[in-house]
Write a structure and sequence with these properties.
The complex is a heterotrimer of chains A (about 220), B (about 300) and C (about 650).
Chain A: H1 2-10, E1 19-25, E2 28-32, E3 39-40, E4 46-47, E5 51-55, E6 60-65, E7 69-72, E8 77-79, H2 88-101, H3 133-146, H4 150-163, H5 171-183, H6 187-197, H7 204-222
Antiparallel strand pairs in A: 1-4, 1-6, 2-3, 2-5, 5-8, 6-7
Helix pairs in contact in A: 2-4, 3-4, 4-5, 5-6, 5-7, 6-7
Chain B: H1 2-18, E1 26-29, E2 37-41, E3 69-79, E4 85-103, E5 109-115, E6 118-122, E7 125-126, E8 128-138, E9 141-155, E10 171-178, E11 183-189, E12 196-201, E13 210-215, E14 222-231, E15 237-246, E16 250-253, H2 255-258, E17 266-283, E18 286-301
Parallel strand pairs in B: 3-18
Antiparallel strand pairs in B: 2-15, 3-4, 4-5, 4-9, 6-7, 6-10, 8-9, 10-11, 12-13, 13-16, 14-15, 14-17, 17-18
Chain C: E1 45-55, E2 59-72, E3 75-81, E4 86-98, E5 104-126, E6 129-152, E7 155-179, E8 184-191, E9 194-197, H1 203-206, E10 215-225, E11 228-235, E12 240-248, E13 251-259, E14 269-277, E15 281-290, E16 298-299, H2 300-306, E17 319-329, E18 337-344, H3 355-358, E19 362-368, E20 374-382, E21 390-391, E22 395-397, E23 402-407, E24 421-430, E25 438-446, E26 451-452, H4 459-465, H5 467-480, H6 482-486, H7 493-507, E27 510-511, E28 520-521, H8 525-531, E29 533-534, H9 536-549, E30 554-559, E31 567-573, H10 581-584, E32 592-595, E33 601-607, H11 615-632, H12 635-638, E34 641-645
Parallel strand pairs in C: 27-29
Antiparallel strand pairs in C: 1-2, 1-17, 2-3, 3-5, 4-5, 5-6, 6-7, 7-8, 7-9, 8-10, 10-11, 11-12, 12-13, 13-14, 14-15, 15-17, 18-19, 19-23, 20-21, 20-22, 20-24, 24-25, 26-28, 30-31, 30-34, 31-33, 32-33
Helix pairs in contact in C: 4-9, 5-9, 7-9, 8-9
The chains are: A alpha+beta (about 220), B mainly beta (about 300), C alpha+beta (about 650).
Chain lengths: ~220, ~300, ~650
């Protein structure tokens, strides 16, 4: 067991961590791997890398891992795999990965396939059930940042924007995470974010902050 | 490429047609002394005995019409088919009066009148005077006519015997006492005796009948060989060809000369070897031919 | 670099002098006298003629010889026509006749020796050794004037006739050429080895026949350096020749001295020559000068006694000046480009046919042998794969330049061999004509249609190839589930189709790891279906094909896993937007967002195809793996996980 742990710890930079539940307060649930159901999280439970935890209102949970400890406050959700310290390079890789995930932009020339991709005529009348899980995830990401796991926080936030597109329209969160990039010195990436944020409906304060940051970055980039 | 080939072909054909002279032949000169032989037809018509007039064992073969004044000395041998050889000595002299022509009844010119201008002696023996007869055929009739007279001396088995002997390789004397005139006398040199040999080679059947003639070489540049044939029904020898050749001791008569001789007309061939000294003296009465000869006739069956 | 064998000697006198080792000049080789073994430098067709002037008492000109030569591989055949090779002698027979007018006329005889034509054949065993033979045809015309007495009736007269005889004969000889090294070579040949034909019937003519003494000749040709040659030949009949030749660029100079047994003085004569070599023709100007007086009178007796052995060169020959022109005509095209080597850079995987359209499968190293720009059309063909040559783009090559030119190949759709075949590829270079200037053959391994190079991006070809099968199969499956599908909202169509097809797919299948020990082998969907099993590649290919055939976009996920056995599974596009995720699942780690070509974010689901259980399980396993290895461990960014879209 010990050796296995050792191997696990030293295998790869991003070694899988397990966390033990130290404290639980209120409504805390977890979902393992690809399970469809949420289960109640109890003290002493071991959470593996593939778990997702979610807190309800007025709830919190304290996780203890071998490298980091993490406290998740109310109305948040976080993937256990995100609770780790990443370095700048890894953050950059993760940011780049976003693009790499996407389908290739150039259409291939010769195509034997007669199948046509595209939506059928007659738009779907599917009811979209919205919930606030996206916001919970963002909250979780904020707490990652507050737990000094800023890089993971950005990664988690970015993931959330993709999976929960509505969350992209929340300026406060957007600015918060863009600022992390700024603070970390990733100006170009931050700039992309600020530029995108400016398309949102912003308060004057928010706009001012974004503008200031934007200008500042531009100055910095020009002087290079 | 094809054009080039065509062009080339035309050029070469052109060159070939226009550029070709035949290379000049190399003419080689006669530096060989052998085999020099000059052939002459003598008797042109075998039916005309006229042509045999000039030919008898005296070896005189000229056409009588063309003879100049003549003094002839001959030492003669005749070898017959059976191998016997007779010897004769013969001397004759003929003088012509060129102003007088003798014609046949038919108008044929037979010769000039032969005259007797004086007394002729050979080696101090006085020559006899006998008629000069010419034989010819006219209107298919054999005729004898006389041109005049001539001087002769003769010794031998047939005919008259004069006390006269021909001496070979020596000198003999001729003198003429011209009537009412002077005496002319001179010596006549005689050649080395000629002795011939005839070897018939080949056969008539194989068409290669030829005659190898051999003789002793002597002191003349060339010798004359007369090839004649004896007419079958008459005892007349017809001269056929004369061959003049270098006196080198042998001559091969090619088959074309021998083979052709028709055996229906002739039954014997006679090869007459003549070694002759001859001189022509220019006198006031015209040319005087003086000849002395050694003659050997060999008769062979055809 | 081999010698012509131009042996010159009393019986092998050549009108152009002796031009030993120069491979440049083919002209002297046309002379059979010298070149008994009929050696030739002619590559295809050669043509030559000699035109000359002879300085006899009068000058006369002649075409001496016209020759033609043809090389076929290692054989060479030649023929020559020699109208100028004749010599006539006229002399008195010794007989004369007395004509009607009492004049005497000599009878003459003549003999005309002619060499009419010759034929040659040779075979080159190697560059150093060749053997050949020549046959020459001669006529001798004898004439003699004779008189024949004709006895016609009673008349006798001489008939002048000409006796004549024409005696023909052939002369055959053998020759051998041997090169010891670059600077030295030898020649051995016979003289009058074979003589057959008529003999003079007529005894008179027998003595005048051309002398044909049997003998042999040995020649030595020495090149101390490229620009000069020294040559020597000796004949057993007692004659010899010495020659010195020099070369300067396109020009050549030569001087030959010859000794002839039958001629005076010791060195009977010389042959100076100047020559020029143009592109397709050669020009020789030569002279034959005898060192004795040729215009003097000659006697018959010597002629009859010694005769002559050689028509062109005998004691009676005259000085000459000659012009020889030869042409080398290649009807075969000159090689302009050469394909030195070909490097095959791609293995042939018949199923990856599209791969070969964009990228060349081989590169050829080509050199331009000429002084001009050459446009070359590369073509290639693989035996067993292509019926016709496949053309690659044309390239222009600068003079004398060497370039690397790509060769492309097309694998026809119809190629279906399931065996790996060792075949060969033919590479051709075409320039102007429709025959290739050069070609090259190289062995090539043609993989089977199921062969795979291990690159997941190439699995798309297996998917695409069998789409017809998949389509009909998928449609059959879906139509049997029509009722279910009809009740569904359109948006969920892809998801449910994928689910139905998966469950149907795996119902009959078994997972088998790759049975092949060597190489990779991927089954076509129909094969997986028939074999009822396959490995992760086969199964992913099969399932992807099914989905693609009904219009569901898929991508293969390549897990490269650090040297361990590589794994492949699948992602497919539900076409749902991220907002609609809740319809599919409660667990947001089970799906992934990918932006489409037109900028729309869509939900893609991973499927672990080797989990031959059911769709839900396969989806679960696929998602877990993807999450961990692709996302969490930044596998995609680090290149450890690769997403390969099928289109």
């Amino acid at each position: 067991m010990k050796t296995l742990l050792m191997i696990l710890m030293f295998a790869g930079i991003l070694s899988a961590q397990t966390f033990t539940v130290e404290k639980v307060s209120g409504d805390v649930k977890y979902q393992n791997g690809s399970s469809e159901t949420w289960s109640t999280l109890k003290i002493g439970a071991i959470l593996k890398d593939d778990a997702v935890i979610s807190t309800g209102q007025n709830s919190s949970v304290l996780l203890k891992g071998s490298k980091v400890n993490f406290n998740l406050n109310e109305s948040s959700a976080v993937s256990v795999s995100n609770i780790k310290k990443m370095n700048i390079d890894e953050l950059l890789l993760a940011l780049a990965m976003e693009d790499m995930m996407n389908a290739p932009k150039e259409t291939k020339k010769s195509s034997d396939n007669t199948a046509v991709y595209g939506t059928k005529e007659g738009e779907s009348t599917l009811q979209i059930i919205t919930d606030d899980f996206g916001i919970k995830r963002l909250n979780g990401a904020v707490q990652l940042a507050e737990n000094s796991l800023e890089e993971s926080a950005v990664v988690a936030a970015k993931e959330t924007y993709r999976k929960y597109p509505d969350t992209k329209n929340l300026p406060s969160y957007r600015i918060y995470f863009a600022n992390i990039l700024y603070d970390k010195g990733l100006y170009e990436e931050a700039l992309d974010e600020y530029v995108d944020i400016q398309k949102l409906k912003l308060t004057d304060e928010e706009r001012a902050e974004v503008n200031t940051k934007t200008e500042s970055i531009k100055m910095k980039l020009l002087s290079e | 490429m094809k054009n080039l080939l065509t062009y080339l072909f035309i050029v070469s054909v052109g060159l070939f047609l226009f550029g070709c002279d035949k290379p000049a032949p190399t003419e080689l000169f006669d530096d060989s002394q052998e085999e020099l032989a000059e052939y002459e037809i003598l008797g042109k018509d075998i039916n005309d005995e006229f042509y045999s007039n000039g030919f008898d064992t005296t070896g005189v073969t000229q056409d009588l019409r063309e003879l100049p004044n003549l003094i002839a000395l001959s030492g003669i041998k005749v070898t017959y088919v059976h191998g016997n050889t007779d010897e004769f000595s013969f001397a004759q002299s003929i003088f012509f009066d060129r102003t007088k022509k003798i014609f046949s009844p038919g108008g044929r010119f037979l010769g000039f009148k032969s005259v007797i201008p004086g007394i002729v002696s050979f080696d101090n023996k006085i020559a006899r005077i006998v008629p000069l007869i010419v034989r010819y055929r006219e209107n298919n009739v054999l005729r004898h006519d006389t041109l005049g007279n001539k001087y002769i001396l003769f010794s031998g088995r047939r005919g008259d015997m004069d006390d006269f002997r021909y001496r070979h390789n020596s000198f003999m004397n001729f003198s003429i006492n011209i009537f009412f005139g002077e005496q002319v006398s001179f010596n006549i040199p005689t050649p080395i005796e000629i002795t011939g040999n005839v070897e018939i080679l080949g056969s008539r059947n194989q068409d290669d009948l030829r005659a190898l003639l051999q003789w002793n070489t002597g002191n003349t540049h060339d010798i004359t060989i007369i090839i004649g044939a004896r007419l079958r029904d008459r005892d007349i020898i017809m001269p056929l060809y004369r061959v003049k050749t270098i006196d080198d001791g042998s001559l091969l008569i090619p088959s074309r000369f021998i083979n052709q001789i028709p055996i229906q007309h002739f039954d014997r061939i006679v090869f007459t070897f003549i070694r002759r000294f001859e001189n022509t003296i220019d006198t006031n009465s015209g040319d005087l031919r003086v000849s002395s000869q050694s003659i050997h006739s060999i008769v062979v069956n055809l | 670099m081999f010698a012509n064998v131009n042996i010159l000697s009393q019986s092998s006198f050549g009108l152009n002098g002796y031009w030993g080792l120069s491979p440049n000049f083919n002209t002297p080789l046309y002379g059979y006298e010298g070149n008994t073994s009929n050696y030739a430098h002619v590559r295809d067709w050669g043509f030559s003629f000699i035109y000359g002037v002879e300085f006899a008492k009068n000058t006369n000109s002649n075409i001496y010889s016209i020759s033609l030569s043809k090389t076929l591989g290692n054989h060479n055949l030649s023929a020559r026509f020699t109208p100028g090779y004749q010599k006539e002698f006229i002399f008195n027979t010794g007989e004369s006749i007395v004509l009607e007018d009492s004049t005497s006329q000599s009878l003459t005889a003549s003999v005309n020796y002619k060499e009419l034509f010759g034929l040659g054949y040779s075979y080159k065993f190697s560059e150093d050794f060749s053997v050949g033979t020549t046959f020459r045809f001669f006529t001798q015309d004898f004439f003699q004037e004779i008189v024949t007495p004709v006895f016609e009736d009673s008349l006798i007269f001489f008939l002048r006739e000409t006796k004549s005889e024409k005696v023909k004969f052939w002369k055959g000889d053998l020759g051998i050429n041997y090169a010891l090294n670059e600077n030295l070579n030898f020649v051995f040949a016979s003289i009058n080895l074979l003589n057959f034909g008529e003999k003079a019937d007529n005894s008179d003519f027998k003595d005048l026949e051309l002398r044909r003494e049997v003998g042999g000749m040995i020649g030595v040709n020495y090149l101390p350096f490229d620009a000069a040659a020294i040559n020597f030949i000796y004949e057993t009949t007692g004659s010899y020749q010495v020659a010195l030749n020099g070369y300067a660029g396109d020009l050549g100079f030569g001087m030959t001295l010859f000794h002839d047994k039958y001629q005076e003085p010791e060195i009977a004569g010389m042959i100076p020559t100047i020559s020029y070599k143009g592109e397709i023709f050669e020009l020789f100007v030569s002279g034959v000068k005898y060192f004795s007086n040729r215009k003097k009178e000659f006697g018959v007796s010597e002629f009859v006694e010694n005769g002559i052995s050689n028509i062109l060169n005998n004691p009676y020959s005259f000085d000459k000046v000659l012009l020889t022109v030869s042409f080398n005509i290649n009807t075969a095209k000159e090689r302009t480009v050469k394909l030195i080597d070909v490097e095959i850079v791609k293995d042939i995987y018949p199923t990856f046919s599209e791969n070969y359209v964009e990228y060349p499968f081989a590169y050829g190293t080509i050199v331009n042998l000429t002084d001009e720009y050459i446009t070359v059309k590369p073509m290639a063909r693989i035996e067993g794969v292509n019926e016709e040559n496949i053309q690659s783009p044309v390239s222009a090559i600068a003079p004398h330049d060497t370039v690397r030119v790509p060769f492309y190949i097309i694998i026809p759709e119809s190629y279906s061999s399931e065996k790996v075949e060792l075949s060969y590829a033919d590479f051709y270079l075409f320039t102007i004509s429709d025959k290739p200037d050069d070609q090259f053959q190289k062995a090539v391994l043609v993989n089977s249609v199921n062969s795979w190079d291990g690159r997941v991006s190439n699995l798309r070809y297996f998917i695409k190839k069998d789409l017809d099968f998949s389509m009909s199969h998928a449609k059959a499956v879906l139509s049997s589930n029509k009722t279910v599908l009809d009740t569904l909202p359109i948006a969920l169509e892809n998801f449910y189709k994928a689910k139905i097809l998966f469950n149907e797919y795996v119902a009959n299948l078994v997972y088998i790891s790759d049975p092949r020990a060597t190489g990779e082998y991927v089954q076509f969907p129909h094969q997986t279906f028939e074999l009822k099993g396959g490995d992760c590649d086969d199964l992913s290919v099969g399932y992807s094909s099914l989905l693609e055939s009904v219009g569901i976009q898929t991508a293969l996920v390549d897990y490269k896993a650090n040297g361990k056995v590589r794994h492949v599974n699948l992602l497919f596009n539900t076409k749902l937007s991220p907002n609609q995720a809740k319809v599919l699942t409660n667990n947001d780690t089970k799906y992934f967002i990918r932006e489409s070509v037109d900028g729309k974010d869509e939900i893609w689901l991973p499927v672990e195809v080797t989990s031959l259980t059911d769709f839900e399980t396969a989806w679960k396993l696929g998602a877990e793996k993807f999450n961990k290895e692709a996302i969490s461990e930044l596998g995609i960014a680090k290149g450890k996980v690769n997403i390969v879209d099928i289109y």
